[in-house]
Specification:
Structural class: alpha+beta
Order of helices and strands: EEEEEEHEEEEEEHHHE
Number of domains: 2
CATH class of the largest domain: Mainly Beta
Oligomer: single chain
Largest sheet: 7 strands, antiparallel
Strand order of the largest sheet: 2-1-7-8-9-6-3
Strand content: 35-45%
């Protein structure tokens, strides 16, 4: 299981998995007060979800908890999260081997420096799922009657796309076939380092690779 924030220009791979991930779901209600009858709640559909987790950026690689060897410098990683916080376009948040693959904005990023752990930077991050706004048009069937369509909901739990390695495949060939650009092989490798291993040229037939 690995955690990623991806857009069309970069892939951010969290070096240490959080111990837990909290997903907040709420349902919207509109309260109407009727004279002599009191208050009534009318459901308005599901509200946007929030995803919260905490982890840290280690200064020194440790195989017991780091997900890959070439971990980023903690200060550089923190600055990248800060830049994502200011982004005007959503990132794709992916937890591999799960159904979590949703567009999000970073809405909060808290940083902690702890004494006695020089160089390590701890953080807590809150993501808010994003969905493209869609407008429903009203259609008049007669001057007295109007039918309105409800707003469709975007399915935020999309399953990660995978590719099964075939004879003669390479990461650049797969990137060309699946992503339209052979130079994007590094993104595929970063998302599948645990499956492939340290050598990106040593992929094996039958391996299932998660696609960006």
């Amino acid at each position: 299981m690995d955690f990623f924030l991806i857009n069309d220009r970069s892939v951010f791979h969290f070096p240490v998995n959080p111990e837990e991930v909290n997903i907040s779901r709420q349902k919207g209600y509109e309260t109407v007060t009727m004279l002599t009858h009191g208050e009534f709640d009318f459901p308005q559909g599901e509200k946007v979800k929030e995803i919260t987790f905490s982890s840290f950026f280690p200064k020194i690689y440790d195989a017991s908890y780091c997900r890959y060897k070439n971990i980023p410098d903690p200060n550089e990683a923190m600055n990248r999260l800060n830049a994502m916080l200011k982004a005007e376009r959503p990132y794709q948040f992916i937890i591999t081997n799960t159904l979590i693959n949703v567009p999000v904005f970073i809405i909060a990023h808290n940083t902690t420096f702890r004494g006695g752990e020089a160089g390590d930077i701890y953080f807590e991050i809150t993501l808010r799922t994003w969905r493209e706004p869609k407008i429903a048009l009203r259609k008049e069937s007669s001057p007295q009657k109007v039918n309105s369509s409800s707003l469709p909901r975007t399915n935020l739990k999309t399953k990660s796309k995978t590719y099964t390695v075939k004879t003669g495949d390479s990461l650049s060939k797969i990137a060309k076939l699946e992503l339209g650009d052979s130079s994007k092989w590094k993104s595929i490798y970063q998302m599948n380092t645990k499956v492939i291993g340290n050598n990106p040229n040593m992929i094996r037939v039958g391996q299932k690779l998660v696609m960006p």
